[in-house]
Specification:
Strand order of the largest sheet: 4-3-5-6
Protein name: Maleylpyruvate isomerase family mycothiol-dependent enzyme
Oligomer: single chain
Order of helices and strands: HHHHHEEHHHEEEHEH
Structural class: alpha+beta
CATH class of the largest domain: Mainly Alpha
GO molecular function: isomerase activity
Low-confidence stretches: none
Shape: globular
Number of domains: 2
Keywords: Isomerase
Strand content: 5-15%
Organism: Nonomuraea typhae
Pfam families: MDMPI_N
CATH topology of the largest domain: Four Helix Bundle (Hemerythrin (Met), subunit A)
Length: 244
């Protein structure tokens, strides 16, 4: 979790540089998030970031599904209700929210959990989920537009989140949680390790691909990740970079 709040702010700045350069036509272009335009994606990010601020202020988030499989439907409804917003106004709104959240999360007592969707998270874990969501949706924005968006060392937080939530992911899929060791190659060529090296199952390969699989933007079979041991392939199948 080291430097998560500073890395979150850096991820916001990276995306801001992309959004600031978009043309009107690009704002209305279909994104890689099915059924959403680029504007819809940014609106979703602004709406959910505002929910972070509401949680920090002690208010219960209104984005509270009865079941975790309702999350996508609720997100669609939230976006549909406000998608008439102009790109300039939306960018201003998103910037106001993301400018406030990293420092506010960093200042929040680390042992005081925050309301988030259907549960609660620590400030650091919530910051990590925000970084993961912004990174995944940045991918949705830039990919159809052919805009470069570099993989960075900030992915270590997303990879950590994916590995940390594997027991939950196994359970949601109706499987028994099993230990899995991950040895991932960072964008800079460093080695990132998650879990017990003695675990009978292991996943190895590029960290960026691991994160894309966890974001459901890349199928395991289309990646170069290697799954060895009795439960590694199943782990890649249920991997998710989010907490609900």
């Amino acid at each position: 979790m080291t430097d998560i709040f500073g890395d979150l702010a850096a991820e916001y700045r990276e995306l801001d540089a992309v959004l600031a350069a978009l043309t009107p036509a690009q704002w209305s272009h279909p994104s890689a998030a099915g059924g959403w335009t680029v504007l819809d994606v940014v609106l979703h990010l602004a709406q959910t970031e505002e929910l972070v601020l509401a949680s920090l202020a002690g208010h219960n988030a209104t984005f509270t599904p009865d079941r975790t499989d309702d999350v996508d439907s609720l997100a669609d409804a939230f976006v549909a209700a406000e998608r008439a917003i102009a790109p300039h106004d939306l960018l201003t709104r998103w910037r106001e929210a993301v400018t406030a959240t990293p420092a506010a999360l960093a200042a929040h007592p680390k042992d005081l959990r925050l309301s988030w969707v259907a549960g609660t998270l620590s400030p650091g874990a919530l910051a990590t989920t925000r970084l993961a969501e912004h990174w995944a949706h940045a991918y949705d924005i830039v990919t159809p537009l052919g805009i470069a968006y570099p993989a960075t060392g900030r992915l270590r937080h997303i990879a950590w989140l994916g590995h940390r939530t594997l027991p939950y992911a196994f359970t949601v899929a109706g499987l028994t949680p099993e230990p899995v060791f991950c040895r991932l190659i960072s964008p800079d060529g460093d080695i990132w390790r998650y879990g017990d090296p003695a675990a009978p199952s292991r996943i190895t390969g590029p960290a960026a691909e691991f994160c894309l699989v966890g974001a459901r933007r890349l199928a395991p079979a289309d990646s170069t990740l290697k799954a060895a041991g009795p439960h590694a392939a199943a782990a890649l199948g249920v991997l998710r970079n989010y907490a609900v």
